Amino acid sequence: MRSVVSVGGVVTDADRAVVPVLDRGFLYGDSVYEVFWWHRGALIQAADHFARLRASAQRIYMDVPWSDARDADEIRRTVEASGCPPDGDAYVRLVLTRGITPIGLKVDGARDGAVVVVVQDAHRPAPAEWARGLRVAVVDRLRVGASALDPAAKTGNYMNNLLALHEARARGADDAILLNDRAQVTEASTSNVYRVFRGVLETPPLAAGILRGTTRTRILALCARHGLVAHERDLVASDLRDADEVFLSSSVRGVIPVVAVDDAPVGRGAPGPVTTQVHAWFEAEADAEAERARGTRGPAAAAGGGRSA
Ligand SMILES: Cc1ncc(COP(=O)(O)O)c(C=O)c1O
């Protein structure tokens, strides 16, 4: 498949897609976005993503120009243009910018906000890569506080996360774990974090200052359904170091094992049984959701001819 981009409904190769330089998304990161997993011909957890997009926009006083159905249609059209096979997987990024104003921070009268859909290869970890897991570092840089710029809003301003990742990589780690100003664990640079301790799954509460991950929501629901005790709990860095297992989650990558925290192995330094089980539940649920979506659309649509949301 090719990397393609739709800007306002016009689909081109990714490297030819443009948004004006006076767009506030470019100037200030004044935009909101979602990353969807297109899996086996279906948009996974679409309703959750669209709800979060609207909540993010509301938090920064931005209008969402299109209906969810129109966004979903445009995503489908862009995926089709990429040459992704009807039952294939893709990474889908939907970005809404506030658009253009006279240069300056005032948002009044913004016009021509861009609706952008980026489609590219999903780059999901192969089994051997998954089994190697990630090494994370608890970085010095703090997660920005909810009263400053609420991490619950998924905006185009990722400087906090980007600098945390840079710090982690400088220490030889693959990803960063950020603490808040109360020294509590929040999340990784682009994913939520969990620990398993004595058979119980724990993840920081929303009040720690995190993004409400769509994958996190699904994982907590799957644990409830399968009888695995899971709850939100304030965690500190030593809780991760002392854990039996640690993993991260995000929509395209799914469940990602962490094998080391600050250079110390987690458990036996390999993906643990609970992580492996949650990963299997998550993958099976996504497969079932894709199956249901393809069944609803019917064979013609599933083969690429449909325009359903
Ligand atoms: C900061 C942050 N936390 C958590 C997540 C995970 O969210 P989701 O599971 O909806 O992909 C992301 C995803 O990009 C993120 O950027």
CATH class of the largest domain: Alpha Beta
Q: Note the run of SSEs as H and E.
A: EEHEEHHEEHEHHEEEEHEHEEEH
Beta-strand share of residues: 15-25%
Note the main sheet.
Answer: 9 strands, mixed
* Total domains: 2
As a percent range, the share of helical residues equals: 25-40%
Structural class: alpha+beta
- Number of strand elements: 15
Bound molecules: pyridoxal-5'-phosphate
CATH architecture of the largest domain: Alpha-Beta Barrel
The average pLDDT score comes to: 95
Rg over alpha carbons = 20 Å
What does this structure look like?
- The chain has 2 domains: 120 residues, D-amino Acid Aminotransferase, Chain A, domain 1; 160 residues, D-amino Acid Aminotransferase, subunit A, domain 2 (D-amino Acid Aminotransferase, Chain A, domain 2, Alpha-Beta Barrel).
- The C terminus is likely disordered.
- β10 and β11 form a beta hairpin.
- Strands 7, 8, 9, 10, 11, 12, 13, 14 and 15 form a 9-stranded mixed sheet that branches. A 6-stranded antiparallel sheet has the order 2-1-6-5-3-4.
- By secondary structure, the protein is of the alpha+beta class.
- The structure holds pyridoxal-5'-phosphate (PLP).
Topology (SSEs and partners):
Layout: E1 4-7, E2 10-13, H1 24-28, E3 31-39, E4 42-43, H2 46-59, H3 68-82, E5 90-97, E6 115-120, H4 127-132, E7 134-138, H5 146-149, H6 159-170, E8 175-179, E9 185-188, E10 192-197, E11 200-203, H7 214-226, E12 230-232, H8 237-241, E13 245-250, E14 254-261, E15 264-265, H9 273-305
Parallel strand pairs: 7-8, 7-14, 11-12
Antiparallel strand pairs: 1-2, 1-6, 3-4, 3-5, 5-6, 8-9, 10-11, 10-13, 13-14, 14-15
Bound molecules: pyridoxal-5'-phosphate.
Residues 35, 161, 187, 190-192, 211, 213-216, 249-251 line the site of pyridoxal-5'-phosphate (PLP).
